[in-house]
Amino acid sequence: MQFGMQRFAASLPDFWGDSIHTCCFATFQLFDCLICLIQGGSSTEEVLGFSSRKNKDWFDENSQEIQELLAKKRAAHQAHLTKPSCPEKKQAFRRACSHLQRKLREIQNEWWTSLAKRTQLSADIGDFRGFYEALKAVYGPSPQVQSPLRSSDGKVLLSDKISILNRWSEHFQSLFSTNRSVQDSALLQLPQQPLRLELDEVPTLDETYILV
Questions:
Q1: Which is higher by pLDDT, 25 or 190?
Q2: Is the pLDDT of residue 115 over 80?
């Protein structure tokens, strides 16, 4: 493949100039590098790896064991697909599926039991940080959704955090700093409760004991 590309680049007319040849050779070198990566066995998993979540659950903490179980199931499935009429391979595939499901249930139950014990221990000894982390592992991280706001004149839609906070500050400053007058007729329309003069009396000793 590389020899054919070089022949193609060499067969270009001379009137294209040296810049075209340089660009073509640079492109061919990048393509050759890509072919080497593909044919050399390097996979995306080896080069980039997997993304890890900050809040892990029972599947993430037992990823290696689960991946091994899944690999055995895939191997049994491939063996069954190559020869579907073979009863031994079909039974082996069913046993692999049953074993995978049983192990996944065991791993999940062990994870939840361990998390419940850790949560209870944190609550008993007053470890609020550990208790909060355990609850966070159960319910997951709380989504932080920021609703956009419009500016005071309504023409600009604010979406960044600083602009939204400044807009709320502007709103409450204008709300509480404005001088408002209330008419006496509106106050007179409010329902009046009767005076409770017994509240002015000093509480007795028995009432104090009851309250304490």
A1: 190
A2: yes
Q: Decide if pLDDT at 19 tops 70.
A: no
Are 69 and 103 in contact by the 8 Å Cβ rule? The answer is yes
Q: Reduce the DSSP state of residue 152 to 3 states and report it.
A: coil
Helix or strand or coil: residue 120? helix
Interatomic CA distance for residues 182 and 188, integer angstroms:
11
Q: Which two tokens stand for residue 83?
A: 């020869």
Domain boundaries, the chain: 2-47, 58-139, 146-170
Count CB neighbours of 118 within 10 A: 16
Closest CA to 168 of 179, 152, 181, 189: 152
User: In this model, does residue 87 exceed pLDDT 50?
Assistant: yes
Is residue 28 within 8 Å of residue 21, measured between CB atoms? no
Evaluate whether 67 touches 61 at the Cβ level (below 8 Å).
no
List the Cα angle 96/69/77 in 5-degree steps.
Answer: 45
Q: What is the pLDDT of residues 60-84, one digit of tens each?
A: 656 777 888 888 888 888 888 888 8
Query: Cα separation of 35 and 42, whole Å?
Result: 11
What is the Cα–Cα distance from 161 to 147, expressed in whole angstroms? Answer: 10
* CA–CA distance, 149 with 152 (Å, rounded to integer): 9
3-state secondary structure of 157: strand
pLDDT tier, 111 (very low <50, low <70, confident <90, very high otherwise): confident
